[in-house]
Amino acid sequence: MDVTPLVWLITIAVTIAFFVYEFYAHVRKPHEPSIGEAARWSAFYIGLALLFGVGIGVVSGWRFGGEYFAGYLTEKALSIDNLFVFLLLMTSFAVPRIYQQKVLMIGIVIALIMRGAFIAVGASLVANFSWIFYIFGALLLFLAYRQAFGDHDSNPADGKFMRFVRRHLPVADEYDGDKLFTVRNGKRLVTPMLLTIIAIGFIDLIFAVDSIPAIYGLTEEAYIVFTANAFALMGLRQLYFLIGGLLQRLVYLAQGLAVILGFIGVKLVFHALHVNELPFINGGEPVLWAPEIPIWFSLLFIAATVAVATWASLAKTRRDDRRTAIVDERADAATPAADEVAPPRH
User: Fold this and answer.
1) Residues near 283 by beta carbon (within 8 Å), at least 6 away in sequence
2) pLDDT truncated to tens, each residue of the chain (346 aa)?
3) Which residues contact 307 (CB under 8 A, 6 or more apart)?
4) String of b and e for 33-70 (b: at least 16 CB within 10 Å)?
5) Which of 114, 170, 171, 340 is 20 to 30 A off residue 180, Cα-Cα?
6) Hey, which residues does 339 pair with through a beta bridge?
């Protein structure tokens, strides 16, 4: 895929322009988006991402188009997992709803900057060291195990990193609008708003560790990696307000993402064997029996995994809701009404 420096500059400039527009049009004035507003803008950004993928397929070939769609779908699924952690952070720091847009916007920009750095490093490693695919594959298999069996109930606002930050920064007890700093009794303090942003930035750094190796398992084109990440992050703020309640119902999202990460990890190991240059593996020669998983299969597998995880999650929560309703009805039926209670004897 031949991407000129001019195309890179235009792409980055347009990405920045979208975020600047978002800030001045939606975020600068504190408010909580309505469901209609969130739905319209979410649909716009998803439609724009799909249209861009079609453009890549038409201009550069459908092999690259397929890689983009697989990468975008994977990054979008991982971004929804990010939203769940963002929701925990917002709750832990008690961020007022009208200020959550600003926190999310800054967090998303931090995420894109960090992923851009990871993408640049990853592109250099992939271009110069074929053995890096072994490391990426092993890392994703480890992350898949942790995603499936790790502790997802821990509070990210009370982790070691945030305790370290609190020990070294003077923190105010209350918010001062959407300000990051405030003055109390002549002393300059950081507000909980700034703490929330620091926490989100740290979480973004952690998520980039599994996000970037995952998409490099689907494509080696840095341009596709960047644009898939950019489009996955665009509209994430609106999606937060649109499906905030639904996030609690996606109980199998972690397991679905574990399956996707594990699949891409295996795909990376197979690719590493196929292009092997390590002298202690097959004498430094490629392992020809190692299969190369085609991108169309990767795309179908990822889409099917997301669909199954979503369907299974919603089916389970519906069953749980029905059981809870039945228990409540039986409890109500077993409790005698006030006028049925016999009067006390004298």
Assistant:
1) none
2) 788 989 999 999 999 998 888 888 777 777 777 778 888 888 898 999 999 999 999 998 889 999 999 999 988 888 877 777 777 788 778 888 888 888 888 888 888 888 888 888 888 888 778 788 888 888 888 888 887 776 655 666 666 777 777 777 787 878 888 788 888 878 888 888 888 888 887 777 777 777 788 888 888 899 999 999 899 888 787 888 777 666 667 778 788 888 888 888 888 888 888 877 888 888 888 887 888 888 888 889 988 988 898 899 888 888 888 888 887 777 777 766 555 555 555 5
3) none
4) beeeebbebbeebbeebeebbeebbeebebebbbbbbb
5) 114
6) none
Residue found by looking up tokens 């939606």 in the block? 26
What is the rounded end-to-end Cα distance, in angstroms, of the chain? 94
CB contact set of 322 (below 8 Å; sequence gap of 6+): none
Stated length of the chain? 346
**128 near 194, Cβ under 8 Å?**
no
β-bridge mates for residue 190, sequence order: 171, 181
| Burial (CB count <10 Å: 0-12, 13-18, 19+), residue 82 | buried
Choose among 50, 26, 78, 19: nearest CA to 241: 26
- Composition of the chain by helix, strand, coil, percent to 5: 75, 5, 25
Token output for 86 = 């963002």
Phi-psi region of 292 (alpha: psi -120 to 50; beta: other; left: phi over 0): beta
Quick one: angle between helices 295-334 and 253-274, nearest 10? 160
pTM (2 d.p.): 0.77
Cβ atoms of 156 and 92 within 8 Å: the answer is: yes
